[in-house]
Every structure is written in structure tokens, then in C-alpha cells.
Amino acid sequence: MTDTLPTPVPGGLDAQRLREAYRTMRTIRAFEERLHEEFASGDIPGFVHLYAGEEASATGVCMHLDDRDSIASTHRGHGHCIAKGVDVKAMMAEIYGRRTGACQGKGGSMHIADLSKGMLGANGIVGGGPPLICGTALASKQQNTGGVGVAFFGDGASNQGTTLESLNLASVWGLPAIFVAENNGFAEATASAWSVAADNIADRAAGFGIPGVIVDGFDFFAVHEAAGEAIERARGGGGPTLIEVKFTRYYGHFEGDQQSYRLDEVKQARETVDCLKAFRSRVTGTGLLDEAGLESIDGEVFALIDAAVAEAKQAPRPTRSDLETDVYVSY
Amino acid sequence: MTDTLPTPVPGGLDAQRLREAYRTMRTIRAFEERLHEEFASGDIPGFVHLYAGEEASATGVCMHLDDRDSIASTHRGHGHCIAKGVDVKAMMAEIYGRRTGACQGKGGSMHIADLSKGMLGANGIVGGGPPLICGTALASKQQNTGGVGVAFFGDGASNQGTTLESLNLASVWGLPAIFVAENNGFAEATASAWSVAADNIADRAAGFGIPGVIVDGFDFFAVHEAAGEAIERARGGGGPTLIEVKFTRYYGHFEGDQQSYRLDEVKQARETVDCLKAFRSRVTGTGLLDEAGLESIDGEVFALIDAAVAEAKQAPRPTRSDLETDVYVSY
Amino acid sequence: MARTISYREAINEALTQEMERDSSVIVMGEDNAGGAGGSGEQDAWGGVLGVTKGLYHKFPGRVLDTPISESAFIGAAIGAATRGQRPVAELMFIDFMGVCFDQIFNQAAKFRYMFGGKAVTPVVIRTMYGAGLNAAAQHSQSLYPLFTHIPGLKVVLPSNAYEAKGLMTQAVRDDDPVIFCEHKALYDTTADVPEDSYTIPFGEANVVRDGEDVTIVALGRMVHVAEEAAGELATSGISADVLDLRTTSPLDDETILESVASTGRLVVVDESNPRCNVATDVSALVAREAFSSLRAPIEMVTAPHTPVPFSDALEPLYIPDAQRVVNAVKTVMGGQNA
Amino acid sequence: MARTISYREAINEALTQEMERDSSVIVMGEDNAGGAGGSGEQDAWGGVLGVTKGLYHKFPGRVLDTPISESAFIGAAIGAATRGQRPVAELMFIDFMGVCFDQIFNQAAKFRYMFGGKAVTPVVIRTMYGAGLNAAAQHSQSLYPLFTHIPGLKVVLPSNAYEAKGLMTQAVRDDDPVIFCEHKALYDTTADVPEDSYTIPFGEANVVRDGEDVTIVALGRMVHVAEEAAGELATSGISADVLDLRTTSPLDDETILESVASTGRLVVVDESNPRCNVATDVSALVAREAFSSLRAPIEMVTAPHTPVPFSDALEPLYIPDAQRVVNAVKTVMGGQNA
Ligand SMILES: Cc1ncc(C[n+]2csc(CCOP(=O)(O)OP(=O)(O)O)c2C)c(N)n1
Ligand SMILES: Cc1ncc(C[n+]2csc(CCOP(=O)(O)OP(=O)(O)O)c2C)c(N)n1
Ligand SMILES: [Mg+2]
Ligand SMILES: [Mg+2]
Questions:
Q1: Which residues form the Dehydrogenase E1 component domain (chains A, B) (predicted)?
Q2: Nearest C-alpha to atom 2 of ligand 1 is from which residue?
Q3: How far apart are CA B224 and CA B226, in angstroms?
């Protein structure tokens, strides 16, 4: 059932929704590029993994979701958070380790979550998310909410036993679960062409009796369409789908990575297939949105990110009295 | 690359080797049927899982192996042990928990091993063996011995992440490893038709870039041929293969299992496709071996099993001084 | 009304009552029903030792068999718990924790803290522990110290059928992740158990025997060993206070310390391996908090630092028994009653 | 000849020398070389923090990158060890043990015993532990108590570059499975380290400072915290005996007990969470074996019973520091020097 979908027309999305999609992608990009700068300045503690370049995946998938739906993310989770509606200022404050952060500063970049939005958390464990999503999908099924669960994971994570088990479990249980393999070419410094012993991650779907689909991850519309089909099938009781999204990671594995293991694949991607550029030219070319409108979104987004950074830097830090709270509901 | 092989002729095996094959299968069957009786008498401690009905798999594979080759087994390990040349009396003594046992009575049925024979142990953990076999195969490769590693595991174990990861690792590393999925229809009380979300376990091979083969597990010659090809390829540097062997478990999951979850599939299999019967009629039909010769093997085997049980029952038990030894080489 | 039922039945009854009470309670595990996809009976097993038997037919769609994929289905239980279900997942033997530990200790246990207090993960993981059935090194372990170490988990070890029902009911209603450790050699033991639902709170040790000379702290099956020892000690005029911890996390510091404050002597009986276990944990607590009351060294009776041996000649030597507890008590009594 | 090199370099040097000495020594792990399949440099990383950098080119075919499949490749290291190799496998962060623990504790650790003494499994699992880099709840843990609990494993925690080289050399030559825990905040610390190969035996604690009033037992990075505290205490006239455990399994009971026999007071400093950890283990040992020498309660300085917080405002409060050790020592000194 592995198949490459043709690039679709922006069918089904009106101007309003297209603006939303653009705003989401732009917000992710601006968030990440700003973090890239801020990290270099030394103010941000811990590890930071940027999602820049991969915006079409989180956005194309999450456009189909609402609060009854859950997603699980990865160490590279900012994009998924933003696309699922987590508050950008709360995210920024979290990354700065502030008490106003999405997790009161206790989680950090790798653990941003907002359960009220169905965002089950970035995850520091490669392959940590897919089992959890089997559970949220099961809950949706048993509660008859029509909700789905979406597990985002990387090419590296596609070799983790937890991920592979989850494909089987979701299939056996007939769960409304979508597995989005974000193949950005690398797991740390290791190429997916080497670590994934198959031509495509999507080829693994057949071994678990589910459809496997490959999409161009630079093309928002391709992702949107493939995800839409899979999610519709899942909502209708048709079970899980594995979607492989292929693209390139724009920055290093984490901030600070020198990336001597790859040559300048990124430069070319940024120039030729960048998801934001492609989106813009598609929607303006067809006359659906105009440049001015998009630029005003850009302006709003940049202002939001500026404000988020400024507020995060000013925000209070957690204190000793926060250290031992919230380990248990009761103890 | 999933493919069903045609039933081969007994090519490549002379009368001497055929007798060996028969003796191995008969020894396994007799060992297990005797344990079935002895267990009922209450003398045998712990859990016992019988391999009866599956003899063609262990035998057909292990006929190709020698001491430089390793196998990893499962909780249902007696057949693999016997086929890999572990001493039958030492096995029986082990199952009785005696000091003369293969593991001095410390291991029991689920942990019989003989590393000198390349038998890495029965294993109480479902999916425990495949990673280990990646390692023995790696050692063979690095040491240039031409040796291979064979992981036997069940249909249930084919859903365990450790197994799936190992298929990928062996493929990525190009290891001389053979993965033998023994699909006996059930994992405990759960049918493989339900738990394996694909038509065949062998269908999973493609997702890891390796050949997947299905064989009739009641047919010694089919197993022998498929294993021969895979092992030859592996010895020649051609990498791993996944072989799915399909058959039926003759007894319950463990001794004591009432098996209300299945009707009398077993009776039919015993009557129509039993591997020993099929082997006999094949080799006598072609005139390679005669009934009398086979019966004299039977006699020798029964005598061996009788002696093994009698000796095991008489053998000394380990004592307090054995309790804390052999945890470490040095401590 | 109380009747005599088994530990197995008590757990089953607690699950039944909680499933009746609350439709979000669901059960899952390998062969927790049994027979999926087979030609015969569905609910053929009710779990490998029959603990969940019958629930499948009583609660359609709420008892799920699983493939042998502990990471996936334990993780699924955890994920479902974040979305309003109250799953009770079975890790068949505690020994299998190694194939799914990440989901338990890095996911379930940490969500609430990592997410700034915003997650609630009411999952129960039932698991079978302990030696005594000659199940050998990979099916006999007492690994609860590993779970006890982890912040964010609660760890429960019922010592008899009465405890099992009340503690399981509490576990299902509890809003934190609970590791519920059932001793495989206790399933057939019986006790008087009320038919009506009841809970036993976590973190409250049970004083199973009052005494003055020595405190014996025990847990799980070791409570019986401690009681047997106490009975024997009584015949030599030594009176032991025997505490059943019930839960190792939370730990009832207070009851332990009060008892030692009055007896001045402590023996801890723990079936697990001796390093970094509950026996060391309780000993250390007392050595810090009740030092001034202590009149003798603290003794620990545990398994040796070895895997569990298979042979029926060795396993009984491995498991702490009443005689070893008696000896330990006599040691802390300074030999005067030895 | 000794020079000053870093902890990172010391480990690298031990591996290099052992790989030169013995062709069966191999190295594997995620990006232990780095760059596999990429368009640029091979050996691009040498491990996520560069510990194995350079080995890939020096020892062709003996440094293996792996997919992110810890069960498979840690298991492979174990399997290879049963067939004559001496693998050094990297579990990048100790926090990831949950996805591969089974291979470590049910396989490697138990082979020898389960198989009646016939297996030899000389595998080293290198892993990075500890807080201090704001790596948050899933990348900062000190989970060595879990490994220490398991019979059949040896657990090593080098506290500085000198220790790291000698202990790693021993680990590679050792015939038992070794969990080698490297503190991530120590990699850049330096010490005088001989160029020639040397081993430091397991189970022999190092007395890093002699003193008379109190014994401070520490391990890994906490040795530095203990030393700092001892320095400060000296200025208030309290002289502390500071022990670096070096290995928690085997544990050097003797040196601990001797020290406490002479000081009569014990403080244990352990970066891990407080329940069932090394601090409780050492406390319990002393409360049993050296009770009569004890003149004060045993204090433990550990992390709290919480996951590791991310914020740079919280993490320093989480990690035991010298001030807390000083306070603990003053407590056991009966406040007379407080
Ligand atoms: C179980 C586990 N193993 C290893 C790691 C270390 N690690 C963090 S991210 C990463 C690479 C992940 O690659 P991929 O899944 O492709 O995601 P990407 O970073 O490309 O988004 C690794 C190895 C981890 N966090 N968890
Ligand atoms: C990790 C783990 N999970 C569960 C079990 C319990 N268990 C033992 S055998 C078995 C069924 C195995 O089925 P399969 O792999 O098909 O092998 P078979 O018994 O049919 O030979 C199960 C669930 C186990 N031993 N280890
Ligand atoms: Mg990637
Ligand atoms: Mg089976």
C-alpha cells in the first residue's frame, strides 16, 4: 500500500484557512530562527532542537485536528506544539525556564506539553510517543468522541522497537491513530539512508497490515491531503495509517552541532523547495491570497515572537518552593 | 521478497544425514512426550513448554550448523537445544533441577544453555534472543569465522520491539543472521492470526530490506532447504533472512494449559501432516531409508530418554554451597 | 458481609466493582481475556493465572487482549490515562519490566512534574512478583525496589486477600500511576474479605502484630514470614511488633519510627535482592530518624545477591524464611534470648 | 608520564589503549563515530559528547554506529561478548535504560548464574548520567542504584580523569558485565593522568581525604562536592574522612566500616533520588555492621524525591551541594560546631 501521492491543488481550504496555515508555518519558522539566534547568545539553558524546514508536516497534519484529538511529539517538538495550538509565549517562557512557562519551567524545550490542547508533550525519548498515542486513540475509540491520535516521530525513531510495536498494536486494535514518520534525512549525525534498512519508512506499513504513504514534506498541500485522508479514515473506524514525510532538517541536530557529516544540502533546499516559499508562490499564483496579506501575517508573527522573547526574559523564575511540588496528585 | 517455496526433494542429504535428521526429530518428540507424562506426575518443578510438533524447524535449520554457529532460543527451547547438540541427559537433569544438569540445576527448562555448542540459552523473555544473535553474528563477522547466528522466536515474539529492531540492525550491519519465526498459531491463548497484523510474519522482512520466506513447518525438507539457502547466503556475506515456519503447537502453551481457546486442530495435524510421519513416508517411499532402520533409531531414542529420566531422578540436587556461586567471574 | 475468598478472587472482585462503578476503568494485557482470534472460547484464560477471568464477558469492549508488545500496550494504558480513561494494565511478570520500563518511569512517572503539574495519569500497572514457584531467574524476581526508587510512581504490595481488594480499589481510584505488585505464591491464599467495596489508603502501614521488644518491618509475602517468626519468637518470650508496609511509595515513615521508638530494635524482611532495596531504605530511615532510640544494630533479612535459582533444592534457601527472621531478631536482642 | 588531560580524553585514551592491546575490543553506539551514510565526514561526532572521537579511523571495522535501537545493539554487544568479543557499547544517556533494560538485567547479568557458571560475558556499557547541564527530566538522571540492585552487574562511577582511565581499563579487561557511568558534567574536568595503561581494581574505595571526626561517603561527581564540603568544614575545625566509592557493585564494605569505626559518624552523599539508593544502601550497611561505633544518626544528602527540573533556577537546588553536606555533617556532629 506504499504509494507516492501526486501534489494536490489547495482543495478544501478557503482563504481564511490558508491564512491560518501560513500563519502557523511562519510562526514555527520565526520561533525557531529566533531561538537559533538566542541560543547562540547563551541565554537559553539545555538542549534545543529546531524544527525549521519541517513546518509543512506539523501544520499540514494539525490543520485537521481539534481539541478532542491528541498528538505526541519528539525532542524536536516546537513545531508540533505551535501547530496544535500551544500558546507561543508560554512555550518561549518554558524554553527560558521561567515560572510562566507552559510547564512552569520544569520541563524545558524537550518537554513542552499542553494536555488541554491534546498536546501530550515533546518527548526526550526517541520512540516515546507512539505507544502513548495508541492510548489516546484507544480512549477516543472507547469514548466514541471521533477523536484521533497522531504520533510524530523521526526517521531515527522508526528503528526503535517502541515505534514498531505501536504500528502493530494500533493495527490489531483498529485504532484511530496516525503515525507520521518525519524523515528529515538524519538522526543526529546518522543518515536515514543508512539506518533505515528499507527504501522508505513507509514500506514498513505493510508488515503491520496498514496503509503506508509517502509525501513530499516541503509541500504543505501534499501533507495536508495525505493527512486528511488518513485522519478521515481513522475517524470513520478505518484504522491507522503510516505517513512518511520526506524533507530536510535546516539546522544541526541540536543547536551547537557543527554538521560536518553533511555538505550543503540545506542551502539548496532553502532556495528551491522551502515549504514557506512553495506555499506562498502556490497561493499567490492562484490568486487566493496576496503578498500584502501574507506580509502582514509575517509582521504579526515577528511581533509576537519579539514579545514572547522579551516577556520570557523578564519573566520570574521558579523558586525553591516549586522544587518539590507536582510530583504526585496526592502522596 | 516474501515467497512460498515449493516442497523440495531430499537433495543433498545422504542416508547418514537423513538418519541424523530423523534421530534428532525423534529425540525431540520423545523428550517432549515423556516430559508431558512426567510433568503430570508432579515431579518436575516450574514451567514447562513443549516443542512437540515443531521438530522439523529446529532440526531443519540446525542440520546446517556447527559449533562456530550460534542459536538463541525461547521458553520453548528443548527442541532447539537437542538440535544444536546439547546433551540430552544434561538437559533432562536440568529440567529436574539437579546438580548434574546442563546449568547445575540453576537454570531449569527455560534457561538450558550450552555455550560450547553455540547454544545461547532458552530464554524466558519473549523477544530476548534476536538482539543476542545480532551479537554472535557480529562476532562471527568480525572474527571471520564464517559462522552464522540463528534466532528462533515465536509468532508472539514477532510483535516484540526487540525482535523488530534486530531485523533492522542485522540488515543495516549486513550480519550473517537468520531469523526463524516459528509461527505455531498461538502465543499462549492468543491466535497469531489476531496478534500479527499482517498476513504473514515474513511480510515484515521487506520493511527491513531483507528476504522473507515462508515454509511449511511440518515438512523437514522445506525447512531444510529454505534454511540452507539463507545460511549459505549469510555465510557468503549476503546478510540476514527472515524465515517464517508455519505449523501447530501440539500441546498447550505450557503444561497444565486446558486450551479451551482452540478446537481440535491438533488432532488433525498429528494425523495428516505430522513432521515425523511425513519424513518417514518420504524417505521410505523413495527407498533411501527403510522402516526397520528408522525403528531401530526409535528404539535407541526411547532408551536414551528412559535413561535420561531415570538418571535425572537419581541425580543429586544442588546444595546450599551452590546458592551463591557463579554470579560473577570475580567479585 | 465478609466471606473467605482468595487473593486472586479479591483482586478480581475489586476490578469488577470498580468497572461497574466507573465506565472509564478498562483492563488490558496479554491474555487478560485470552482466546483472541482462536477457534474456541473467548476469555479462555483471564490472565495467565486467572486473575481477570470473567471480566471480558461482564464488560464488553473494556477488557483488551494485547500482542506481546509491553512497551506499546503499557504505553497505551498511560496515554489513555491522560485522556480520561482509568486503565489497569497487566505486566504479566514484574521480570518483564525491562522491555517497557521507559514508558513507566520516563513517561507516566514524570508527566505531572515535567508538565508543570498539569497532567493527571491514573494508570494502574498490575504485575506478578516473587519466588516460590520454581519459575527461575526471569520469572521470580522481586523488583519493586526499582519502582520504589522512581519519583512519581506509587508502589503497592498487598500481603493478603483483604489487603489486595482494598488496595486495588484504592489503586484504581488513585490519580497517580500505581505499580500494583501481586505475589504469585499468594493467589491461592484466602482471607475474610467484605463483599462491599472498600479502600485501604496508601502510605499507612498495617500493624499486624503488637509487640514490645523488636520491630519487624515486612512487605508482601514476607509479612507472613514475619508473622510466623513472631509467633515462634513469642514462645521464647520475645514480643515483636510486626508492620506490613502495604506501600513502599509512599512509605509510612511515621508508623515505622513510632514502633522503633518504643522497641529500640529493627529487623526488616524484604524478599528482594539486598542492594539498594526496601530493607536498606527502611534501615537508613531509622538510622537517621530514630537513631537515639536504637538499642542494637539494624538487621536485614533479604534474598542473597544472586539471581533466583531454579532448582527446588535451592529456591527455598534463596527466599527469606521465618528461621532467618528469628535468627536476625535474636541477633538484635543481643543473643540474650538465643 | 603523567599529563593533565580531561575526563573525556582519559576515557578515550583507555579505550584506545585497550583496542590496541586486544583486537577483540570493539566499540558501538549511536554516532559513536557519526556520519554513517551522510555526504560529509565519517567519525563526525565520536559520540554525542565526543568521547569516542578518533577511534573510528584508528580501528577500522571496530567502531560501529548503530540505528536508534538500544535493545538490539546493547543486546548485540552482549551476544558478541559471549562469543569472544569484548564490546564497549554506549547507552548514550543512562535515562534511556528503559528501552533496553531487559537485555542488561535479564540477559547479561544472569547468564553466568542461570547457565551454571558456564557463561562469560565481558561487556562494558558506557553511559552518561547526572544533572547539571539543564538537560531536564529525561536526560539528567542518576539511575545507578537500579543497576546496583541487580546481581550479576558491576557498577562503576569514576569521579575524575585519573579514575576514569584506570577504571575503564579495568572495565574492558573485566570478565563480568560492567555498567560504566560517566558524569556528563565531568567531561571537561582535568587531572594528572599517566600515559601508560593502568587499572584501578573494582571494589576498592579511594580515601580522597583523611579525617577523624566524620566519614563522608560519596561517589561520582559527588566526590567533588564532598571534598569541597570537607574543605569548608576544616575551616570550622571538623576533619572529615572522604571516601570515593568508585564502584557501587562490588561495594568496598571494609573501607567504609573501618572509617566509621574510627570516626563514629557517617554522611553519605549521593546524587540519585533518595529511595532505595546508594545512600540508603551504605547507611544500612553501617547501621548493621558498625552500629556500636556510631555516635550519631546517619545523614544522607541526596536529590529530592522528584524528577530533575529543567529550569536553571531549580536544577542547582535539586543537585546536592557542598552547603548541604556541611549542614549534614554539622547535624551529625551534634550541632556543637554549627
Ligand atoms: C531512546 C533514545 N535513544 C537515543 C536518544 C538520543 N537522541 C536524541 S534525538 C536522536 C536522533 C533522533 O533522530 P530522528 O528520530 O530522525 O529525529 P530528528 O532528530 O531527525 O528529528 C537521538 C539518537 C534519545 N533521546 N532517546
Ligand atoms: C517479554 C515477555 N512478555 C511476556 C511473556 C510471557 N509469555 C511467555 S511465552 C508467551 C507466548 C509466546 O508466544 P510465541 O512467541 O508465539 O511462542 P510460542 O509459545 O508459541 O512458542 C508469553 C506471552 C514473556 N515471557 N516475556
Ligand atoms: Mg531525523
Ligand atoms: Mg506461538
A1: 24-319
A2: A126
A3: 6
Catalytic residues of C: 139
Taking the Cβ of residue C338 and every Cβ of chain A, the question of whether any pair is shorter than 8 Å is answered with: no
ipTM value, please give it.
0.97
- Find the CB nearest A131 among C71, C81, C85: C71
Q: What is the pTM of this model?
A: 0.98
Whether B156 lines ligand 2, by a CB cut-off of 6 Å, is yes
Q: Please give the Cα distance from C200 to C177 (Å, whole number).
A: 16
- Smallest CA–CA distance, residue B253 to chain A, in Å, is 22
Classified as helix, coil or strand, D220 is: coil
Is residue B34 within a helix (H) or strand (E), and if so which, with residue range? helix B15-40
Cα gap C84→C121, rounded to integer Å? 9
Element (DSSP H or E) covering residue C26: strand C25-29
Query: Residue C225 — φ and ψ, nearest 5°?
Result: -65, -40
> How many beta-carbon pairs under 8 angstroms link A with D?
163
Neighbouring residues of B292: CB distance < 8 A, sequence distance ≥ 6: none
Tell me the per-residue pLDDT of B260-289, one tens digit each, with 9 for 90 and over. Answer: 999 888 999 999 999 999 999 999 998 889
**How far apart are alpha carbons B169 and D103 in whole angstroms?**
15
Burial of residue B182 (number of CB atoms within 10 Å: 0-12, 13-18, 19+): buried
pLDDT reading at B81 higher than 70: yes
* D126 belongs to a structural domain: yes
A227-242 burial: b if 16+ Cβ within 10 Å, else e: bbbbbebbbeeebbbb
The answer to whether the Cβ–Cβ distance between B164 and A162 falls below 8 Å is no
> Phi/psi at D240 (nearest 5 deg)?
-110, 140
Same domain membership, residue C324 and residue C292: yes
Report yes or no on D82 lying in a domain: yes
CATH number at residue D137: 3.40.50.970
Quickly state the pLDDT bin for A10 (edges 50, 70, 90).
low
Task: Report the half-sphere exposure of C261 (CA within 13 A, side-chain side).
Answer: 8
Domain boundaries, chain A: 10-314
Residue B46 is which amino acid? G
Domain boundary pick from D133, D165, D194 = D194
A331 interfacial to chain B (CB closer than 8 Å): no
B273 touches chain A (CB under 8 A): no
Q: Which of C115, C152, C203 sits opposite A113 (nearest CB)?
A: C115
Chain A positions touching B198 (Cβ under 8 A) are: 206-209
Q: Which residues contact A256 (CB under 8 A, 6 or more apart)?
A: A39
Residue C157 and residue C232 in one domain: no
For chain D, what is the domain count?
Answer: 2
Query: Which spans in chain A are helix H?
Result: 15-40, 55-62, 78-83, 88-95, 129-143, 161-172, 192-195, 220-235, 265-272, 275-285, 291-314, 320-323
For domain B10-314, the CATH superfamily is: Thiamin diphosphate (ThDP)-binding fold, Pyr/PP domains (3.40.50.970)
**pLDDT tens string A240-297:** 999 999 999 999 999 999 999 998 889 999 999 999 999 999 999 988 899 999 999 9
| Number of inter-chain CB pairs under 8 A, A vs B | 68
Contact B117, B129 (CB under 8 A): no
Rounded distance, CA D42 to CA D54, Å?
Answer: 10
C72 lines ligand 2 (CB under 6 A): no
CATH number at residue C215: 3.40.50.920
Q: What average pLDDT does range A172-199 have in this prediction?
A: 98
Q: Which residues pair with C300 in a beta bridge?
A: C268
| Domain enclosing residue C241, as ranges | 206-334
Q: C120 to chain A: nearest residue by CA?
A: A329
Assess whether C236 and C211 both reside in one domain: yes
Residues of chain D with pLDDT under 50: 336-338
How many whole angstroms from B147 Cα to the centroid of ligand 1? Answer: 33
How far CA C227 is from CA of C218, C240, C282, in Å, comes to 9, 9, 18
